[in-house]
Amino acid sequence: MWVRRTAHPVAWSRNVWWAGRDRAHLYGVFTSILNSVGTVWIFCLMFLICADIGARALLNAPIYGVPEIVGMSIVGAVFLQLANTLHVGRITRADVLFDWLQRRRPAAGAVFGTLFNLVGAAVFALIAYGTLPVFLRAWASGDFVGVEGIFTAPVWPVKLLILVGATVTAIEFLVLALMDVRAMIVGDYEHPEAKAGEPKGWLAIAGLAALIALGWAVAVGAFSNVQLGVLSIVAMLVMIYAGMHIGVALIALSFVGIWLLKGDPALGVRFLALAAGGAIESQVFGVVPLFVLMGLLVNVANMGRDAFDVAQWLLGKIKGGLGVATVAANAVFAAITGISIASASVFTRVAVPPMLEHGYTPRFAVGVVAGSSVLGMLIPPSLLLIVFGLLAEVSVGALFTAAIVPGLILASAFALAIVVMAVYWPAYVGSTEGPGAAALARYPAAWSRNAGPEETVGSAALKILPIALLIAVVLGGIYGGVFTPTESGAAGAFCALIIAVAKRSLTWRSLWQVLVETGHVSVSILFLIISANLYGRMLTLSGLPFNMMAYVDGAELGFYATLAIYLVIVLLLGMILDSISIMLITLPLILPVITELGVGMGPDLLIWFGIVTVIAVEIGLLTPPLGLTVYVVKSSLGNSQVTLGEIFRGAFPFVVIMAIVTVLLVAVPGLTLGLL
Known about the structure:
The chain is mainly α. The protein is about 75% helix and about 0% strand. A two-stranded antiparallel sheet has the order 1-2.
């Protein structure tokens, strides 16, 4: 029986591929269902941990098995949500080159995308393949965690979730690869700015082919273990800059590196399965989704706006007062969220309109918001400090304590700089006495804030009371030894939930959006931790960290020269990578070196080093071309005429201030360690 095809072959191909897209959509629905299960699971963990805290405090009868349940649940929830996180484009990647190719050379972008997605499919297929025998063994032997007679839980359900999640994610990568192939065939590209008639980008495609050939030559060549370690770092930077998902690049290079180092691909597969099941299977990693959940609930409860209203009431009369109020509100907001991106999004909407209404220049207004938002990753509780503590295996509570004084110094330096600019550089700040009608015209009309009733002591107290309560619960619990960081995250998220409900700012729809966003943000971070754990093991096998220590000792660079080189590398990486990725890439290499060279600085060396690292890494949030915070501010502005260049220029003074504060903390470690 003959099937008649459409006369035009491209049209026929388009019909076939659109049918494939429909099936891809159905598959997306399936991944959404898995994601929903993981989302609800994390939400239930919050209640379980809070119940354990209450039972322990009130009845002196803790709920047995909570640490084991939390540890296994984090692994299960991550793998349940991985495919959907990929489906919605939230797995971390550096889009500098890849985004340019998609816009200007869409055919080359499709080629790159196809290859990257095929590598992702292979990585997760290997994880599934390595996990299958582990699951079967756990099922047959009845392996469990816990203590018999007190609490036990079987291991096989978590291994099954890893197996299912890895398989589904591999299929999702294949679906994305097929969509890229479809784009090349029919010339229908996903990027909104891409056009079918754009140049093909043969030079980029040829460069990619040359790199693949070079990689093959390296694989079959004779290199020492250390040389393979160095080559893996070079390859990692190239792959990440080209646009491959960062976690995928790290895992792929780890697998290939272990294979080449040990001459056994099966060993590489076992390492993949081990990292997938064990890298984050601990209660301490529950701190990531719980603090993210708390930060998003705080955002829904409009605590950022409340903090700004009070700060504006207190500081609005001084020169540059609204800018100082923005810094102060950001500092307060940082003490209850720990996420710079959330701060940037909130205060772009809350602080920019009143600054423009009072005559501040758009460049200054957006620059203040972008610059001061980095306080969210330094002032505790900080998500970046949590990640550093997990990677460096140091106390998160000690990091939070050490960050208090540097956070206050940085916030004070921002505020002082704003006042100085308002007094001595008024053209940059703008007229702070009259309305800026011309500036407001560049922003959506809906942004203009109504003045509302005049703030009073009573209204200010009502606005600041929930914020103070949440700070007392989260930080007071940690500093007082009442909570572990994970328990503090659960208690803080629960309190933020109660506050949002009491303020009637939380609906069922917004709650679900918060839970889904919590999953996507948490999965992107935890997947990076899994991949970095595996990559660190591969580097250790290569002997590169130990050879680096020997080289530094032989070169007699000294502690501070080595630290300076490290900070410069971090600043350069900040131009193309996000903060957590930078830490995950650099810390496995630098931590052994710093520990060796700084032995004379005492037991708190890594605490001090963590604070310095976080500030240096945060500078990258404000520097082009990536400047993640700047892009968040830009997207939050809506249909304004402000350009990315204006935001970068507005944030530049704050970059300088952060660099000065970093030098100060390096020169005077006591500023960081004084409270320990």
